[in-house]
Amino acid sequence: MLFQPPHATVTVNPDGKTVSFQLKPGTNTMELTTEIFEYSVTVTPSPGQPLTANNSAYLVFFYQRNYSYEEECKDGRKIGPNPTVTDER
Q1: Model-level pTM?
Q2: Residues 20-26: contacts with CB under 8 Å, at least 24 apart
């Protein structure tokens, strides 16, 4: 790894082809947006000289809240779009 993301640790798995992404303790997952890590890959063709490339990986986190904040509530009910109903008749 050339560069670790700020909220996680990335390690290369024993197969050498995949990585593991582990959040650091105490990370608030609701604050994650984009985590970036950089890695280097070297391939040696046969016959030939080793070829190395540096790469960046971007992990983008999207969250859809399934709760409401107090300021979104009125008289104990959530203010928002009305639910939709699908009629399969």
Answers
A1: 0.59
A2: 21/59
CA atoms of 4 and 39, how far apart (whole Å): 9
The residue assigned the tokens 């490339």 is 53
CA distance 55 to 37: 9
Short-list 40, 42, 50, 1, CA closest to 22: 1
SS3 53: strand
Structure tokens at 22: 């582990």
Residue 52 confidence (pLDDT) above 90: yes
Average pLDDT, the chain: 77
Average confidence (pLDDT) over 35-61: 89
pLDDT of residue 89: 45
